[in-house]
Amino acid sequence: xxxxxxxxxxxxxxxxxxxxxxxxxxxxxxxxxxxxxxxxxxxxxxxxxxxxxxxxxxxxxxxxxxxxxxxxxxxxxxxxxxxxxxxxxxxxxxxxxxxxxxxxxxxxxxxxxxxxxxxxxxxxxxxxxxxxxxxxxxxxxxxxxxxxxxxxxxxxxxxxxxxxxxxxxxxxxxxxxxxxxxxxxxxxxxxxxxxxxxxxxxxxxxxxxxxxxxxxxxxxxxxxxxxxxxxxxxxxxxxxxxxxxxxxxxxxxxxxxxxxxxxxxxxxxxxxxxxxxxxxxxxxxxxxxxxxxxxxxxxxxxxxxxxxxxxx
Amino acid sequence: xxxxxxxxxxxxxxxxxxxxxxxxxxxxxxxxxxxxxxxxxxxxxxxxxxxxxxxxxxxxxxxxxxxxxxxxxxxxxxxxxxxxxxxxxxxxxxxxxxxxxxxxxxxxxxxxxxxxxxxxxxxxxxxxxxxxxxxxxxxxxxxxxxxxxxxxxxxxxxxxxxxxxxxxxxxxxxxxxxxxxxxxxxxxxxxxxxxxxxxxxxxxxxxxxxxxxxxxxxxxxxxxxxxxxxxxxxxxxxxxxxxxxxxxxxxxxxxxxxxxxxxxxxxxxxxxxxxxxxxxxxxxxxxxxxxxxxxxxxxxxxxxxxxxxxxx
Lengths: 312, 312
Known about the structure:
homodimer, six-stranded mixed β-sheet, 15 strands
C-alpha cells in the first residue's frame, strides 16, 4: 500500500515493493522466487544499470532469458515482490563486461545519477535501482569480515554477509546524513562545494555521528561549515541516497546568529539568499547565474518549501 | 550553544561537547589535547563505564593521574572540548581488567543501561558515555578492513580506521532505526518482545534498509510486525542509542487498517491500547499490570506525547 508523502515524491524515495524480508533467510523460498518464470531482473554491470532500449524509451526489467544473454552474475539480491506477486531481483555482472555490453545494440548503460537527472525511468524503477545499488556497493566494499579478517559469504537473499570463521553476521550499512537550510527570517543559508556544477548553491549537509540526535547534527554541521548558530530544528522529509548508501534527513533550522564564517576545507562559499533570490535561481534569472540544485536532490525540495513558506 | 528540544531531553540525546571534528586528522593537535594537564577522561573497561564513588554520588571524569592508576588503555577517542576548552577523551581498558577493577575500593563499574535507568550520572555525562561507547564498540567489531581483510589502524583521534594494505578508510557506523506508534483515533499500537521485562509493552521498531525513506520504513515495520497498514507518518524526535550504535527515529503513523496480525518471530504480542489504558500504564494502575517503557527509552516519550495529544 504505497502512500504519497513528501519523502515518497523525491527521487529514489518511491519504492513500493513488498520486501518480504521475513522470507530472506529461507533459501528454498529465495531459490524458488529466483527461478520462477515470471521473475524479473534489474541488471548492473559493476554499479552501472543496464537498460534495454525500446522504441519509446528504456526498459530496466530483464526476463531470465534476456538476463542470461548478458553473462553470469557475480551476485544477486532478492529485492521483493510486486503487488501482483512478481519477484524482482538485482543482478550484478563483472565490471569488466562494461565495455562489451555498452557496445551491444539494444542495450543502454547509464549511471544512476544520469538516469535520475534525465528522467529515463519511472520514479518507481529509480527507487528500486537506488536501493539495489546501495546493497551491491556494500557487498563490493565488504567482502571480508571486519571482525576477524576472513572472507565472508552472502546470505539471506543478499541482505546479509556471514563469517564462517568467527560467526559474525553483517548487515548492509545505511549512513544517516543531515541536510538542511538555516533560516534567518526571509533568508536561507546555502553553500557550494568546489566540485559542484558552476553557479550551483545547495543546502549544507554532513554525516550524523555516534552520540548525536538529528537536531544536534544539524546544528553542528551548520556551525562547522558556516559558523552560524541555530536553535529550533524541524524535520522536513528524507531520501535514500544511493551514492553509495546514505539516508538524507532534510531539515530546517532557525538561525540565532547571522555572521558567516566559511570552512574552506569543506566549502568554496556559503552565504545568505533572500526568498527573491531563490525564486530567481529556480527561474534561471539570477543576475549572477546562480542556480538551484536539480529536482532529484532533496536540497531542491527544501528550497522549494522555503520559497513557498511551507516549513518550520 | 546547547539547545533544548524534544530530542535533547531524551537520555543519551544531550551532548553539548564541541566535537572539533575538523581537528581530528591533526595528530599533533590531538596529542597536545591528550597530554594537556586539564584534560579529563571517561574510562571504559571493555564497554562498561568506570566511575569514581564520591560521598554524594559518582564521578565519571578521571584526571591523567587517576586514569593511569587503572591500567594502560588499549584505545582512546578524542570526544571534543567543553565550553571552557577542557578536552574530553574516552579510554578503553582491556575487558580482562573488569574483575580486578570492580574489586577496587572507590570504583564503581556500571553498564550504561543501568546508569541510565538508575539516573547515576547527569544527562550530559550519559550522552558523552553513550557516544563514546558506540565508537568503542565499532572499533572492537571492525579491527579488520572489510574491503581486503587486512588489519586496519585507528586514526583521526579514534574517528576513523585506515587500511595500509588497500588504502580504504572506514568510519564509525550509525544504524538508523525507526520506532513508532501507529495511531487509530484514541488508540495506539504497542507490542512486546519475549525478552522485555514482564508486563511491558513498547513501540514497534526496526532497522531502516537501503532504498527506504523514514516514512516507508515506518509503514513497512508496522505492517511486517503487526499486519496494520498506515498512511501519513510524522517525525517526533530522535535518540542516539548506544546498544551498540543506532539512531532511533521516533515517529507517529496514521493507521488505515486495524486488524492485528502478530509476526511471532519478532513479537510475543501486539495490540491496540486506548489513551485511558496508556494513562494506567504510566500510573502503575493497569488492571493487567501492563507497564510503559522507562524514561530512558524514546518509546516512553512517544507514549507520553500520545497521552498528551501532542503529536501528528
